[in-house]
Amino acid sequence: TMDTATWASEVRRLARERDAVILAHNYQRPEIQDVADHTGDSLGLSRLAATVEAGTIVFCGVHFMAETAKILAPEKTVLIPDANAGCSLADTITAQDVREWRDQHPGAVVVAYVNTTAAVKAETDICCTSSNAADVVRSIPEDREILFLPDQFLGAHVRRVTGRDNIHVWMGECHVHAGIDGQELRERVAAEPEAELYVHPECGCSTSALYLVGAGTVPEERVNVLSTGGMLSAAERSTADKVLVATETGMLHQLRSANPATEFEAVNPRAECHYMKMITAEKLLASLRDGTTEITVDTGTAASARRSVERMVEIGT
Ligand code: 13P
Ligand code: SF4
């Protein structure tokens, strides 16, 4: 086995040889984040995929993210180091489910979180990510009914911050974030009353975080419901001694390097996404060496899905 420095230089060499750019999500293993050209959240990585010059994108993340890259950059080769890196949230809804739901609500606008397959995106009107979901919903005329899918906690959050009650929410969830629950958050806050909170809106505890504010337990300015990219920007500016972080634990690596003076701690240290961690050092190397596994999306599906993703990108949030 190679040491990390040898592995990293081999990865960089193969990437040059292949004219490949390596994109990594904030939940990836630390060594993958460190070797990547760009690390970011779903929205940031989608934007990059659409604009990078390289002929090949190696996507270190889960399958729907690599598919989104392919949808936005159809002329590029998109590789994922392990094609089995799925997503429990994306698995909660199929294209057929969307068609049936839409039939029950004629005239409604279908908003899809990017954590969905290309086939599902193709059935929707506009996509959103955790960082722009509220802005996407605000861009829709107030009298239009909205079907929001697939995450119930993000949907409830959007309903709360936009104050709209004509939003129907699909009852899907991500097993990792749903597992960071209100009970756990309340216990951690009781033990660390001075800490700031960063809460991903997919968390089971995102509603509890706002109840803690409502009950006066934690002052409002200390509670931040953010995407992973939003957490990183907040961390860069933070003057807090301690921040409790409610999201997948891979995020701590970026937060700690962004601000070594602040202590970042997981609300639930067991909140690990095994799909994200399927992208290992060996598999990244093999992917660059062998050109595996190439992501394909059929042209018709890609064209419909692209309209939905591009409407989101055009809102420019
Ligand atoms: P963001 O990076 O967009 O916040 O997404 C979080 C997530 O769960 C992706 O799987
Ligand atoms: Fe999917 Fe949850 Fe893993 Fe994100 S953390 S990829 S939403 S299973």
TrEMBL record:
It catalyses: iminosuccinate + dihydroxyacetone phosphate = quinolinate + phosphate + 2 H2O + H(+). HAMAP family: NadA_type2. Iminosuccinate binds at H25, S42, Y113, V114, N115, S130, H200, P201, E202, T228. Belongs to the quinolinate synthase family. Type 2 subfamily. Binds 1 [4Fe-4S] cluster per subunit. This is Quinolinate synthase. One of its GO terms (cellular component) is cytosol. Catalyzes the condensation of iminoaspartate with dihydroxyacetone phosphate to form quinolinate. Its cofactor is [4Fe-4S] cluster. Its EC number is 2.5.1.72. Its main location: cytoplasm. It is found in: Cytoplasm. The keyword Iron applies. Pathway: Cofactor biosynthesis; NAD(+) biosynthesis; quinolinate from iminoaspartate: step 1/1. Keywords: 4Fe-4S, Cytoplasm, Iron, Iron-sulfur, Metal-binding, Pyridine nucleotide biosynthesis, Transferase. GO terms for molecular function: 4 iron, 4 sulfur cluster binding; metal ion binding; quinolinate synthetase A activity. The keyword Amino-acid biosynthesis does not apply. One of its GO terms (biological process) is 'de novo' NAD+ biosynthetic process from L-aspartate. It comes from Haloactinospora alba. [4Fe-4S] cluster binds at C87, C174, C273.
